Amino acid sequence: MLEPRKPVQYFEVNSTEAKPIEAYTIVETPVSLTVNGEAWVSFMCTPVLLEAMAVGFLFNEGVIDSMDEVVEVRLCEHGDNVDVWLTHAVEKPSKWTRTSGCSGGMTAVDSIADPRPVAAPNGFILPASQIGHLVEMLFDAQNLYRETGGVHTSALTDGERILLSAEDIGRHNTLDKIAGMCLMQNVWPSRRILITTGRISSEMLQKAVRLGASILISRTSPSSLSIELAEKWGITLIGYARRNRFNLYAHSERILMGHTIHE
């Protein structure tokens, strides 16, 4: 079975010396997805939560809507293929497009169409000061990152606590893993907020909409298209979130600005 981290030796070099270091680095490896016995796609990913990633990918692509459609999910003994068997026949997309970002993911070429959310974004209000607390909770969920660095983390929260979290070298894979865990563990809170360390591109926003998230928070920037789609689909979009500040790009009505965010 594949491991998510690998020991490495390297030199830490400064102006006066080269110091040998023994540490761990994050693993990136191809893992294939087979649906009803047919090879569909290969992911470049970190080999943890692979069954959840496979199920979540099919969910986010609109292939399935619930676990009632899944007969079996099986990770092969070598850990490099996930077999998913469904209750019904499905047609493999004829074309895939490589998405933006590290370890570029795959999505159906026509997936820019409106995703089918599992729940309409609701109108709950989140105090601005709570954004920083959620960022801190995301840091606490970064177990692999603390060991290796070089890995993205995303989390599902209800605004009070982290419900699910996932780490992967590919930011888009983290949202597929969270979607899969939501289905497999039947975790569907009424208030859904996603927070991630990764850049928010259009496919990241589509996955958030598909999950029924009302608020999407990133430690870094959104793309121009993701901002446009957030406005269109009613998602509150936050970027460059830190403990005491953030940028609010779309649908500010969900964020209560009545309190100053202090240092």
Outline the structure in words.
The structure is a single chain. The protein is α/β, with parallel strands linked by helices. It is 24% helix and 32% strand. It is built from 6 helices and 16 strands. Helix 1 packs across helix 4 (171-185).
Give a concise summary.
With about 260 residues, the chain is α/β, with parallel strands linked by helices. Helix content is about 25%, strand content about 30%.
Q: What order do the helices and strands follow?
A: EEEEHEEEEEHHEEHEHEHEEE
Describe the global form. Answer: globular
Structural class comes to alpha/beta
Percent of residues in β-strands:
25-35%
Q: Would you identify the CATH architecture of the largest domain?
A: 3-Layer(aba) Sandwich
Termini separation: 46 Å
CATH fold label of the largest domain: Cytidine Deaminase, domain 2
Are there runs of 5+ residues with pLDDT below 50, and where? none
State the helicity in percent bands.
Answer: 10-25%
Number of strands: 16
| Major β-sheet profile | 6 strands, mixed
CATH superfamily of the largest domain: Cytidine Deaminase, domain 2
- Total domain units: 2
Output mean pLDDT: 90
C-alpha Rg (nearest Å): 19 Å
CATH class of the largest domain: Alpha Beta
User: Within the largest sheet, what's the order of strands?
Assistant: 11-10-12-13-14-15
Number of DSSP helical runs: 6
